[in-house]
Amino acid sequence: MTRSNATRTAVATLVAGTFLSVSACGVSGGAADVRQGEKTGEVAGEITFRTLQLKPKFTAYVQGVIDAFEKKYPGAKVRWEDVPGDGYNEKLVADAQAGALPDVVNLSTDSFQLLGDRGLLADVAGLDPQVAGEYVPGAWEQFKLPGKGDGVYAYPWYVTPEILTYNKELFEKSGLDPAQPPTSVEQFFDYADKIAAVSGGRYSAFMADPKGRLPGDWQKMGVPILNEAQDRFVFDTPKAVEWVQRMKDLYAKGAMPKESLLKSDDINQLYGGGKLVFGPGSPGFVKDIKQNAPQIYAGTQVAGAVTGKLGHIGIYAQSLGIKKDTKHLDAATEFAKWVTNGPNQVEFSKNATIYPSNARGLADPRFADRGDGKDAETVARAVGAEQLASAALDANTPVQWTNQVGDAVVREMQKAIQGEQDPQTAVRKAQEEANQLLAKSARK
Amino acid sequence: MTADAGRHRRKALAAMEAETGLVHRRWWTPYLFLAPGLVMVALFSLWPFVNTVILSLTDAQILRGGTFVGLDNYTRAFADPDFWTATGNSVLYLVVVVPCLVLLPLALAVLVQAEIPGIGFFRSAFYTPVIASAVVVGLIWQWVLRSDGLVNTVFRKLSIVSEPVPFLTDSTMLLVSAMIVTVWKGLGYYMVFYLAALGNVSPSLHEAAALDGAGPVRRFFSITVPQVKPMMLLVGTLSAISALRVFTEIYILGGESGGPGGGARTLPFLIRQVGLGFSGETGYASALSILLFLLTLVFSLLGRRLSKGDES
């Protein structure tokens, strides 16, 4: 090969390779702590408000909230931008890197943790301590960060609680009493065992979905996830091993669809097709089933989520963060409080299957109404609201259980559930990997 | 002397301009024309590449600037079993998929080259998978390959198997399934390349060979194949680069863990898993990207060397 040819090939491959490399490029610099803006007492100025995929379904509702705010504060102007779910987080990271975060931004639990941890969000508790009482217990506390004292770094917005849905007919066919839904993880597995024994492969009990089940199932079984100092994973316990063993046995017996070990995105299709006993655990999905599979919906029963030893569910609220160095701190905080206030959240819940994180909103009679107890959607709304009232943070996924930790643990669980390694080894290796990842992310 | 040389040069240029009608410009004139393209390449290709090299020498994380760690990320990669699994899968993918994508589309192109009524339909049909969205392709193939899917149902009805074939739940089978999807999607795409190349093969060559008594098979190997060889090399290089970049097929069939226990992950899959998300390790993912780039470079040079050897 001549030298020029080699050079040409190298350059061509370099260009091709560049596109690969860009995918891992991410963000090169770090975000230093920025200085917090100051309150002036005047609610004025133009602020940006970013939401996650609310257009076009909720355009009228959101615009109505904005218009009412601008009417109340004529000096304030809200520029609303709605971003699709796909790529939302990537855009957030890119904007944070460029110092171009919106003044008020809709954050999920993990994006809140990242931006808060990097010092990019205003401490809303410090700005307005009495506002804490506005929200349901647990929702406000959820937006504190480890190692950041009593600071709260976002306003809680809407919530979607966990519930239990199941196909009444298949439940009865399996010799189970629909009036006695499982309340612990162990009982849930016992039920699944019975279902697998009777179904003959015609239907399954539940989706394996280890990523979705952990660490929640372990917490409900009383497995400690972290040590007291919260700096090491300690879930390698006999109870966790028992969980893996039971999952492995049930998987072999056909209690779960084989592919659900890897993917869980077809749960609606399977449940709607009458091939799954336990359906999706969210009130929003009950509405989907009502629209897409009316027959199955008619036989769908709703109960409180399996809570095991904890006795309550966790709370996962969407939130509104305030850009720490916003130029219009007063307008941004007032607007975030306006969006998350009781009446506005109740109105939102009429348009979507969501629940207010606002205490006054959740006390609205519509959330206590069970109707005649036969319509799954109405019952789901009441059950979800009841559970939210007692929700507590110890049922939440700990901040330290990042997506990467979850992936690493799940990989070991998948191998064990398929019988490629024994449960004891799987849990031990999962804990080792999780601790290695935790040590890396703890670097400041 | 220098003044004389300058005068001569100007005279010569003036004579040349008068003779050819072309006007001599400053030395940097061509670069002005190139500038927009060069700026784009520098900004969107070269700089990200350089940035990735720099990042690969740091322990950067998302929104957290890194410190220089030398070659630690590379040492970590070589000691990481996940890296070796992913590299092995990527190379296996290339070794299996490239020959299929070089040969099968050629055979398909020869088939649909014939000008017979209704052939346009078949050409379009073979091209359809290329324009189908990844989501649609994923759903179709999941429906075909899952344990209660089309293939397994047929197998069981015909008593070919007693237990479902784990097309999607076994790492090796998942890789094979993903390869089938890649080949299925690539057939129509590369078929169009070959149709263009076949259009340039002079019919007189075939006629002459036919007169000499050569049958269709002999004509295919002795005329068609040598005539489209440059296109085969191009298809080989392009499909090799895409085989090393495969991600979507594994993701849509095997979920976000990349098959059970992550056993079907390829290098791009691993890079994405390590680097993206709010807990992403940008530095380590960059190092993996550079290693993937080097692997691509090695195979590109290998392909070029093979083609050169063949020509000589």
UniProtKB/TrEMBL annotation, chain A:
Organism name: Streptomyces flavotricini
PANTHER family the record matches: ARABINOSE-BINDING PROTEIN-RELATED (PTHR43649), POLYGALACTURONAN_RHAMNOGALACTURONAN-BINDING PROTEIN YTCQ (PTHR43649:SF33)
Alphabetical keyword list: Cell membrane, Lipoprotein, Membrane, Palmitate, Signal
Matching InterPro entries: Bact_solute-bd_prot1, SBP
Pfam family, one: SBP_bac_8
Protein name as it appears in the record: Sugar ABC transporter substrate-binding protein
First and last residue of the signal peptide: 1-24
Gene3D superfamilies tied to this protein: Periplasmic binding protein-like II
Region of interest called Disordered, as start-end residue ranges on this chain: 416-444
